[in-house]
Amino acid sequence: MRRTFETMGTVVSLEGVDDATVDEVKRIFASADSRFSLYRPESELARIASGELAMMDSSVELRTAYADALAWSSLTSGAFSPNRPDGVIDLNGIVKAQAMQAAGERIGAGGWRDWTLNVGGDILISGSTMQTTGIIDPFDRTKLLCALELRPPRVGVATSGSAERGDHIWLGGSTEPAEYVQVTVVADDIVTADVLATAIVAGGRSGLDEITGRWDVDVLAVDRAGAMVATPGIREALAA
Q: What are residue 2's phi and psi, to 5 degrees?
């Protein structure tokens, strides 16, 4: 049975668990939203952005998330960044995936084995069987671009770009619109998938080449003209 709820500005869909587990997952996302949302003036991150709260006075959870984001920034040569061009700290590129990871760990601890967690199109699965997921067409969100067959250990799928939220990821940290309007990454964990999807959007084709050369991930990228780039793993995962 599929259960849905809204959080972090998007819709969460969870299959393969009971109502009590759904409630626990809701609390994980609600806690992340209350701490990291830049749209809630009372959140820690919004208070840091306004100058009301200093980073050194923030919670351990926020400082840890920021440190994780900085580590990913270093690993991706700055393509992934927790800092917007205007200097505001924005952890949206990592905290949703971290909440998904925490939710997945909690679900697994409860003994559930075959489940699917979908958060705004980013997906985390568990189980031994193949699952199929659709990738939205960035130019017509009423249609699917393609469908991918997921098999463990490839359990995390994340899509980043401008199709849903407009241009909010900038090429090379500048204010120039990114080359790719949508990038989907399939990886062995959801945090890696989400971070690298954002990094490839920000890094463009050179970033895609560097990241696929360094990380064992599968990538589907769509540029502003509609041309697509797919790594071999994506081509193998395309559903009939």
A: -95, 135
Would you say 110 and 23 are in contact if contact means Cβ atoms under 8 Å apart? no
Residues 6+ apart with CB under 8 A from 134: 144, 145, 146, 147, 148
CB atoms within 10 A of CB 65: 22
Phi then psi dihedrals of residue 175, to 5 deg: -100, 15
Reported as a single tens digit per residue, the pLDDT across 26-78 is 999 999 999 999 999 999 999 999 999 999 999 999 999 999 999 999 999 99
Strands, DSSP E only, in the chain? 2-7, 10-15, 115-119, 122-126, 131-137, 140-150, 156-161, 180-187, 218-223, 228-230
The two structure tokens encoding residue 150: 């997921």
Which stretches in the chain have pLDDT values below 50?
A: 165-168, 170, 172
∠ Cα 98 33 142 (to 5°): 80
> Encoding tokens for residue 83?
């800092």
Measure CA 199 to chain center.
Answer: 11
Give me the count of residues in the chain.
Answer: 240
Q: Provide the 8-state DSSP code for 89.
A: B
**pLDDT computed for residue 167 by the predictor:** 46
State the pLDDT at residue 162: 65
Which pLDDT score, from 0 to 100, does residue 129 have?
77
The Cα-based distances of 49 to 31, 44, 58, 86, 90 in angstroms read: 19, 9, 12, 11, 9
pLDDT of residue 161: 86
**Please, what are the domains in the chain?**
2-237 (3.10.520.10)
